[in-house]
Write a structure and sequence with these properties.
- The complex is a heterodimer of chains A (435) and B (143).
- Chain A is α/β, with parallel strands linked by helices and 435 residues long.
- Chain A is 32% helix and 22% strand.
- Chain A contains eleven helices and 21 strands.
- In chain A, helix 5 packs across helix 6 and helix 7 crosses helix 8.
- Chain B has two domains: 68 residues, VC0802-like, CATH 3.30.2130; 65 residues, 2-Layer Sandwich (VC0802-like).
- Chain B is globular, with a radius of gyration of 16 Å.
- The longest helix of chain B has 11 residues.
- Classes of the chains: A alpha/beta (435), B alpha+beta (143).
- At the A-B interface, helix 11 and strand 20 of A face strand 1, strand 3 and strand 4 of B.
Chain lengths: 435, 143
């Protein structure tokens, strides 16, 4: 078994918790003293850095949200003057003002370290040729992988994003063995190679890939693996914390190890903010334990995941999180159960075999939530027989219940009767009067 | 001996039946027989028309989901027991009737019904050998 930093990656649990507590106390004090935003937040709830005496005490510290970061655009969260900052990254700002992060020289060293660990975790060595097809620039994807691969000593092909034909030529001519890009781009690459260039992706030398920066599924993993004949691994990270390299899957392909000596993870109930037991799905909250430029205390990622219980055969002690299963923005909570529109979509697709048009309507007729899923009748499944249609309706109800775990009522509606919109369809109508 | 039936999915919403029939009227489609099967959430409008393909196009252009399927048109004696006599033949032949409805018009002295069973071919054979009159599509369309 290969590690980049064996001591840290396999640090016994008690030792790891000790180290985390020590670092948590230090970073909380550091943030309180240097960043007015944190001082104000702490003072509002009457908590002092000295009050943190155990890791559990972290729950008394207020959360930091993406909105908080936008308010202090651009440098309001920085704990050090710009003279100490050596690199700046930023989110794209498509949903509001961008979030700006600054790295000190030591922060960059940390980033290199966690990315090198991430690459080694899925078997990359200095013998590999790694093609980085994440965008280089303000986006952290390209440079994050670049720093990690540079530290490890693999041969970097800094292709950046786009220019699909060129990507495939590079893979073919240079004998690229490892690819890093988004999972949807990987599928596009495979399709393009085959259909536009007559190259069977399986004849390329790719043997492994690290995929992330968007939500994907186990089915997509198998698809990518089959098309290229490679092993696909999950990477997790976000600009606010460091970029890619917060967590990565090991060769077991069973959850992503968080590099816990640098990032302290919590899973909380997104509605109450209370910590959830291991194995329960909730929102991931991260605290940077060592970051100097922009320390992040209890940052709400809005990503939904769960800790995977038990230890990993690979020997790493950092807790594993399941692949990201949704965003709190898309989440619906019904009768205490968390569910996502895409789960319902998947269930309908399995029954009907066609891209579904549907809408989810939430009501609370007698103090109890009801879900109605309206599904448009399609030509493919319509029948002149009531029984057949009733069976279809029941099958949809059953499949959705199996997928999301609660009973729903399915109503079949006429085609094109549900509202269409450009891009994102409005899938959920909440009539419960809760918001 | 099978004839074409057009069926339409109707949501239980005010005005939908009218809109379907309006689309047919505008396309000059004449309805020979009609029935509605309804549940609490939706209905299925089934019709025999003089121009099934034209009806299908008119309805789909108006945004309806339709389907053309096969049924048979049976002439039964217009007196008590006329339909029962036909059903007895099917019962004895172990055929299940899925639905049945009547035409608006008669054919001479006989009443006309639409029949859909679990086995149309066998139904046709049974009825023919019992001397029951079946109408083909041209006969139905020219009523």
């Amino acid at each position: 078994m290969n590690y980049w930093n064996k001591d840290m990656e396999t640090l016994p649990m008690e030792k790891l918790r000790e180290l985390q507590l020590e670092r948590l106390k230090a970073i909380v004090k550091y943030a309180y003293e240097r960043v007015p935003f944190y001082r104000k937040k702490f003072d509002e709830v009457g908590i002092k850095p000295e009050d943190i005496k155990s890791l559990e005490d972290i729950r008394y510290i207020p959360f930091t949200s993406k909105a908080d970061l936008r308010e202090v655009y651009p440098f309001g969260m920085f704990a050090l003057p710009l003279s100490e900052i050596v690199e700046i990254h930023s989110s794209s700002g498509t949903t509001g003002k961008p979030v700006v992060m600054g790295y000190t020289r030591r922060d960059l060293e940390t980033w290199k370290e966690v990315m090198a660990r991430s690459l080694v975790a899925f078997g990359v060595t200095k013998e590999d040729i790694i093609q980085i097809a994440y965008g280089y620039g303000l986006f952290t994807g390209g440079l994050g992988f670049h720093y990690g691969a540079l530290t490890l000593g693999a041969t970097i092909v800094p292709a950046s994003a786009g220019n699909t034909r060129r990507q495939i030529e590079l893979m073919k001519d240079f004998g690229t063995t490892v690819i890093a890009c988004t999972p949807s781009y990987a599928l596009y690459l495979a399709e393009y190679a085959k259909d536009e260039m007559g190259i069977d992706p399986r004849t390329l030398k790719l043997r492994a890939g690290s995929f992330g920066a968007e939500m994907w599924t186990e089915e997509m993993r198998r698809e990518i693996e089959n098309r290229f004949g490679l092993k696909a691994y999950n990477v997790y990270g976000l600009t606010e914390i460091i970029g890619p390299g917060v967590a990565h899957e090991c060769l077991e392909q069973n959850g992503l190890h968080i590099w816990e000596d640098h990032f302290y993870p919590e899973i909380i109930d997104p509605e109450t903010g209370e910590p959830l037991p291991e194995g329960t799905k909730g929102e991931l909250v991260l605290t940077t334990l060592t970051k100097e430029g922009v320390p992040m205390i209890r940052f709400r990622t809005r990503d939904i995941t769960a800790f995977i219980p038990g230890t990993c055969p690979c020997g790493r002690t950092g807790r594993r999180i399941a692949r990201i299963q949704g965003r709190t923005d898309d989440m619906i909570k019904v009768r205490g159960v968390m569910l996502f529109p895409y789960q319902i979509e998947k269930a309908i697709l399995e029954v009907q075999g066609v891209e579904p048009h549907y809408q989810i309507i939430l009501t609370r007729p007698q103090h109890l939530d009801e879900i109605e899923v309206q599904v448009e009748m399609s030509k493919e499944v319509f029948s002149d027989d009531v029984k057949t249609i009733e069976n279809l309706r029941k099958k949809l109800e059953k499949r959705i219940e199996e997928t999301v775990g609660i009973r729903v009522k399915v109503t079949l509606v006429e085609p094109k009767s549900l509202p269409r919109s450009e891009g994102k369809a409005k899938r959920v109508i909440d009539k419960r009067g809760l918001i | 001996m099978k004839i074409k039936q057009i069926s339409v999915f109707l949501e239980n919403k005010k005005g939908r039946l009218y809109e379907a029939l309006k689309a047919l009227a505008d396309a000059g489609v004449n309805i020979r027989a009609l029935s509605i099967a309804d549940t609490s959430d939706f209905g299925i409008l089934r019709m025999i028309v003089n121009n099934p393909e034209g009806a299908k196009k008119a309805l789909e252009d108006a945004g309806f989901t339709t389907k053309i399927s096969s049924v048979i048109a049976v002439a039964v004696k217009d007196r008590p027991g006329g339909l029962a006599e036909v059903l007895k033949i099917l019962y004895d032949g172990d055929i299940n009737v899925e639905y049945v409805y009547a035409f608006v018009e008669k054919s001479g002295e006989e009443a006309l019904v639409v029949l859909r069973t679990n086995n149309l071919d066998k139904t046709i054979d049974l009825l023919k050998s019992a001397g029951i009159k079946l109408l083909d599509s041209s006969a139905v369309e020219n009523l």
